[in-house]
Amino acid sequence: MKSGGFWLLFVGALLAGLAFVALGSNEYYYFAGYVILQSMVMAIAWNILGGFTGYVNFGSAGFFAVAAYTTIALNKYFDGIGVHPPLVVFIVAGAVVCGLIGLGTGYLTLRFRGVYFAIATLALAVVFQTLANNWDYVGGAKGTYMLTPAPPLFFSSYVKYLFLVMLLLALFAVLVSRYIAHSKFGRGLAAVRDDEVAAECMGVPTLKLKLISTTVMGVLMGMAGAPYPYYVTYVDPLSAFSLGIAVNAIAMPMIGGTAYWYGPVIGAILLGSAQEILSVTISSELNVFLVGVVLVGFVILAPSGLIGLFNNLRARVASRA
Amino acid sequence: VIIDPGLFLNAVVSGLLLGGFYTAVALGLSIAFGQLDIVNIAHPAFVIVGSYFAYFLGALYGFDPVLTGILFTPVLFAAGVVVYRIYYLSFERTGQESLSGLAFFFGLMFIIEVTLIMIYGVDYRLVPAPYIGMNWKIGMVDIPLRMAVPFVVSAAMTIGIYLYLSKTFVGRAILAVSQDRQALQLMGADPVKIKQIAFGLAIATASIAGALLIIIGPVEPSINREYIGRAFAIVVLGGMGSISGTVIAAFILGIAESFVQTFAGPSWAPAVAFSILLLTLAVRPSGILGRQS
To answer: How close does chain B come to A215, measured CA to CA in Å?
Structure first.
């Protein structure tokens, strides 16, 4: 994407979001928009490791839920001492905790083949879910309620505020991902993905690059998960660690195209909107079923995603002309 | 701390019984992941499919779950062959196993789980069998038959697979395909066909393992996720594909879980497998019986 066009779209998205918050009235659209943007952040984060380096993270829901539980625990602690910090404090806390978890997991498992990393992330999600189930301070298996704070100044409802926060996070994730894709760091990651041994031989510090990208992935996923308790107002381990979150984080980049920073953005917009429409019109089980089918269909038939299909089409048209 | 010897002995015995059952669950993955290098995270989902076969015939027509498990092995064998064909044509042949192949099995697991939920809902399902409520008592040790029957069936299946792999031509070809593809080709065997049979065999074991699972306790579709960790922990700890390593690792996990269950509470049990897995990856990724790399 050309730089000028990108900034035009970027500012356009921001202004559209602001106008939407200022003018809209139907609350449903903010709830739906929040979910789509949240899964966009998750998909972009997943792709920074999965798409750019080829290491698959199955435990996205674990990162997401750890951040959500960090918010719950901190909120409870601050409530106890009578302090009410702004949302950004929780977002930073979630980002730091998940960034450290990403770094730690990476340090333990990235030296081995990618499948071990994939299985370890799955493992991690279950370990954290077990911890959440047994930690009574944050509600244990029963879950816990969150009070919705009063909407901040200039906002007529709290969900509008959350929507705008998630929009800013999504735009931030886009900037990070695009910067990485275009930087020397991103080229190093692509070298890791295409041939790790060759990259290592050429002097690319592969382990360091992979560790940085797992950390960045963790940070972004933490940011996406931290506001979640305020959004749903009731959190239990089953919903926070939901497999749906992990599947979406993989399916969206796969649908858009994992090799490009804008692949997960396209995937999130398409799949996210489709899911919101489907879950209103048909059952939610059928909805998640379709996500699985679409994921499998894309990895078999169009492994480079929609962007890959589009590029093929363009090349075919160009060769015929 | 004084530990009640009866409690201790019971924990050991139930751990051994549990480990015997875990062998059945991990055996197929040991072949698929350990021998064929196919990271089939959908394996436990196939095990749950086996449980629902047993539920379907058991609750409706009163079939014995073990019998159903054996009856349905050809069905899951065929499913395994089909899955391997797709996997081979789409990923293995083009060298896309790592990213797309993993995502494929993840999606497959998801499809199986949600399909079962759409048909049967999220309620726990049971099968009737005369031995399920029975209990043997030897000294102060309790041996519930709902654990002992799966142990015996699993042992029989494991010995069967072991003999098949070590004594028959196809079985040896399966072991060979993981070691040296080219040498196998020179011997006149088609590696793709051999892998297809092996993967079918791996999935077929899930039919019996699933029947054993529903004998042990009630089943619902999403519990397959707990078994992903258990099965992979066993295969990695056992040294990737060695049958004896798989058996030993299954016993280690069974006993560890049984102790955690007895002395810390059942809600901590799911974390045991994953902790063992993470520990193995961090300390000795080649497993107990694997070659140190």
So the answer is: 19
Judge whether B59 and B125 are in contact, CB under 8 Å: yes
SS3 A234: strand
pLDDT along chain A (321 residues), means of 10: 82 90 84 94 94 89 95 91 89 96 86 80 87 89 85 84 94 94 86 82 85 94 95 90 88 92 94 86 78 91 89 88 68
Task: Give the closest of B110, B226, B274 to A247, CB-based.
Answer: B110
ipTM, 2 dp: 0.84
Rounded CA separation A18/A299 (Å): 36
User: What pLDDT score does A151 carry?
Assistant: 82
Residue pair A282/B101 in contact (Cβ under 8 Å)? The answer is: no
Q: DSSP string covering A109-148, please?
A: HTTS-HHHHHHHHHHHHHHHHHHHHH-GGGTGGG-EE-PP
Report angle CA B286, B290, B293 to the nearest 5 degrees.
Answer: 55
The residues with which A261 forms a beta bridge, in sequence order, are none
- Which single residue is written with the structure tokens 């560790």? A211
Predicted confidence band at B40 (pLDDT cuts at 50, 70, 90)? Answer: very high
Would an 8 Å CB–CB cutoff place A231 in contact with chain B? no
